[in-house]
Design a protein that fits this description.
Heme Oxygenase, Chain A; globular; Heme oxygenase; mainly alpha; Haem_Oase-like_multi-hlx
């Protein structure tokens, strides 16, 4: 196995603790338990909007048009509108690592969230009778192909030690941003 073949596992290992912590964050635990109310759900969507707008604003140019999350941001805005809520204003203060490859680490976090989103979409049956209000978590038909393309790119670029280190720094920074967004929006059941 070459070092490039382990780039994604290096990202996963480096971010495992924060990723697991976020899986058990109160709003996600409350969704899984069927007890997150509509106002708190709207606050969670606002947090996610803030996170994705910030990432897009800081890393979007490095991602290229194929990887941009505009469709995910549009789904978040539609879900917020359905709930009668508005997105938070402006991006969160955040300065991502600027080393080449860091944006790929950020994209790993942003795109990786689509995988668990489908599980969350199903868990919201108790709160929302149809797909309206949860289109962000339901995702789109292109999500799987985007994820596979990103993983292939991570493996290619991750064979260079400095690139891999930058990807890890970017992923860690993106997860830290998400935690700050959750704290800022004070999402509670």
């Amino acid at each position: 196995m070459t070092s490039a073949a382990t780039a994604r596992s290096a990202l996963r290992t480096a971010t495992e603790e924060v990723h697991e912590r976020l899986h058990h964050a109160p709003p996600f635990a409350d969704i899984a338990a069927g007890r997150l109310g509509r106002p708190a759900y709207a606050a969670l969507l606002g947090c996610l909007h803030l996170f994705h707008i910030t990432l897009e604003g800081r890393c979007g140019a490095a991602w290229g048009t194929a990887a941009r999350s505009g469709d995910r941001i549009g789904r978040l805005e539609a879900d917020l509108h359905h709930l009668g809520a508005v997105p938070p204003r402006g991006p969160a203060p955040w300065c991502p690592p600027d080393a080449p490859g860091a944006a790929l680490g950020c994209l790993y976090v942003a795109q990786g969230s689509t995988l668990g989103g489908r599980v969350i979409a199903r868990q919201l049956d108790y709160l929302l009778p149809d797909v309206r209000g949860r289109t962000f978590f339901a995702g789109g038909p292109e999500d799987g192909a985007r994820w596979r393309a990103l993983c292939a790119l991570i493996e290619r670029e991750g064979g260079i030690p400095a690139q891999r280190a930058a990807m890890i720094a970017g992923a860690e920074a993106a997860f830290a941003l998400f935690e700050r967004c959750l704290e800022r929006e004070t999402v509670h059941g």
